[in-house]
Amino acid sequence: MKYFYQYEDNKDLNLQELLIESFDNILITDCKARIVLLSKSMVKALRLEGVDLSGKTVHDLILSGYYTKSTALECMKLGKQCSGIVHVTGKGNEKDTAVFSTSTPIFDDKGMLRYVITNSRNEAALEFYARELEAEKLNSAKYQDVSKYLSKLAGSSGEVVANSAAMQKVIRLCSLIAKSDSVVLITGESGVGKEVVARYIHDHSPRKDEVFVPVNCGAIPSDLVESELFGYTKGAFTGANPNGSAGLFELAHKGTIFLDEIGELPLPMQSKLLRVIETGEIRRLGDTKYRKVDARIVAATNRNLEEMVKKGEFREDLFYRLNVIPLLISPLRDRKEDIIPLAYMFLNRFNRKFGLDKRMSKKSLDNLLDYSWPGNIREMRNVIERYVIITPGDEIDITFEETMKSSQTRISMESGESGEPVTVPLKYAMDDFERKYIEAALRDCNGSIAKAAEVLGIHRTHLYKKLKKQD
User: Fold this and answer.
1) Which GO terms label this protein's molecular function in UniProt (predicted)?
2) Does residue 311 lie in a domain region?
3) 192-215 in b/e burial notation, b at 16+ Cβ within 10 A?
4) Beta strands in 111-182 (DSSP E)
5) With contact defined as beta carbons under 8 Å apart, do 187 and 328 qualify?
């Protein structure tokens, strides 16, 4: 193993200077215990400032009362690495202190001792590391599943967090569901991870090597839904591709099509989707013939389809055809065990994305657990990304103000100076504000995309696109 690499631009490298400037306390002695080199930090640790050490040995320092014993002498005597606590005598009003030292012997080709290199850490550093270690032990006891989850995640193709009993039940059910081709209806609040679960089903099914086609039914303008789903023929409508185009169902042939926000599908299209489920055939817009498609259908919604059926907003027959295998994803507030692993997953993702190495404080972890997460996993992802970007140091301290917790959250911008220093690029700041504003609107509207879009003064399709961009 090679430990030193020399290049054209480091031929004049002076290793002595590097050792002297080292942050670590370093002492090098020869086979006679004579002092050969000390780092500046070691001089400070042993309180040797201004002392002439020419020709001095470690024995001399002990006899002069600078410290009580030497691991270097023990190392020379035993011919092996030695460690121990060394008490350093205070000068004047200074208190006695202690350092933890480790001395390592260096032998020549004939096995004769040449040097001993000693590294040490002072008492203050030891106390700091002891506090950090204790804090890590507390965190480990409280969040012991995190490392297990992260190691499991590293070898997993999906991003399903299943530390909670509720999600473990979902995953067990998904493993059974994946074996069949039956239609699945995934329900749950906005942002709980319905598409992730749909992908999990696909990835564990016999169709896993085929395409997975996600479709947001609410993001497609009503007059284009049919052509998007089923395709169209040449000259089907003004502005169409002159050669016609296959629809999303045809693209999903042999694979899985995920119909997200199925509750937003216009009533006329619901009857056509029903026919596809019943016959396995689609007809392109403007065509006269039907085409066979083999695509597994997984649908999802954050709306109550049964209530929509009662109000005449959703076809009853379609509801029953979709609801063959119902799958409910619980909100994040009801599965606390998933919160910390999710937070670390997103932290790792954004650290990689931005080339950073941020970490979360213990207080952050406590705050994450205490928060109710009305926006579920989508909100958590945005929160973690926000703090990764706006935190100037390496440790993230996530807090939730009362205004964020309120269901009547309002975000405003003052025209005057805020007094806050500018720490992030304008683009990130604007994106961050937009995320917060949309989150607030969704909270006020209890997760309803349609109502939130109306409040924001934008088309529902536009809001879907913004949410997709945030994903």
Assistant:
1) ATP binding; sequence-specific DNA binding
2) yes
3) bbbbebbbbbbbbbebeebebbbb
4) 113-122
5) yes
Q: Render pLDDT for 307-365 as a digit per residue (tens, 0 to 9).
A: 999 999 999 999 999 999 999 999 999 999 999 999 999 999 999 888 888 999 999 99
- Using DSSP's 3-state secondary structure scheme, residue 59 falls into helix
Give, as one character, the DSSP assignment of residue 93: T
Provide the number of structural domains found in the chain.
3
Assigned domain for 136 exists: no
**Tens digits of per-residue pLDDT, 224-237?**
899 899 988 876 76
Question: Is residue 432 located within the same domain as residue 389?
Answer: yes
- Do 357 and 461 fall within a single domain? yes
Q: Does pLDDT of 244 surpass 50?
A: yes
Indicate whether 455 and 394 sit together in one domain.
Answer: yes
Please give the pLDDT value at position 407.
36
pLDDT for the residue 131: 63
Clarify whether residues 169 and 305 are in a common domain. Answer: yes
Per-residue confidence (pLDDT) for residue 65, from 0 to 100: 82
Quote the CA–CA distance of 261 and 183 in Å, as a whole number. Answer: 15
Give me the helices (H) in 10-144, please: 15-20, 40-45, 58-63, 71-78, 123-142
- What is the rounded average pLDDT for all residues in the chain? 82
Q: pLDDT tens, 448-461?
A: 777 788 778 787 77
CATH number at residue 459: 1.10.8.60
Short-list 254, 212, 246, CA closest to 229? 246
- Pair (200, 302) in one structural domain: yes
**Does 175 lie in the same domain as 115?**
no
- Contact at 8 Å (CB) between 16 and 33? no
Residue 389, both tokens = 């970007």
Identify residue 470 by its one-letter amino acid code. Answer: Q
Residue 129 lies in a domain: no
CA dihedral over 365, 369, 373, 378, signed as positive or negative: positive
- Supply the range of the domain harboring residue 33: 8-123
